[in-house]
Amino acid sequence: MESIHPSHRSLTVKSFKVMDVLQRANQLEASGRTIYHCEVGQPESGAPKNVAQAAVSALTGSPSEARMGYTDAFGLKPLRQKISEYYKTKHVDVPEERIGLDR
User: Fold this and answer.
1) What would the pLDDT profile of 4-26 be if each residue is shown by its tens digit?
2) Residue 80's closest CA among 60, 102, 63?
3) End-to-end alpha-carbon separation of the chain, Å?
4) Distances from the Cα of 87 to the Cαs of 67, 73, 93, in angstroms?
């Protein structure tokens, strides 16, 4: 099987420093050191109950309830509309057609 290599362009992108710190902290922890992780602010409380319930419904509900699958290539239109409206409250006109979302 052929191994996967990063692209040349991706090798030129500078890392997000907190990820470097997290990686080093994880290495030290794996070597047996006691590490108190304060570098990322990762939540320990879990998702809010209503968010967890919505995720379960999306994963297990009927096809009409489950919002799984492909969306428009630029993201959900109602969300793009809301983002466009938000920008207007900041006196910036960004049409929804110019807004693209990634997961």
Assistant:
1) 888 888 888 887 788 888 899 99
2) 102
3) 30
4) 26, 21, 6
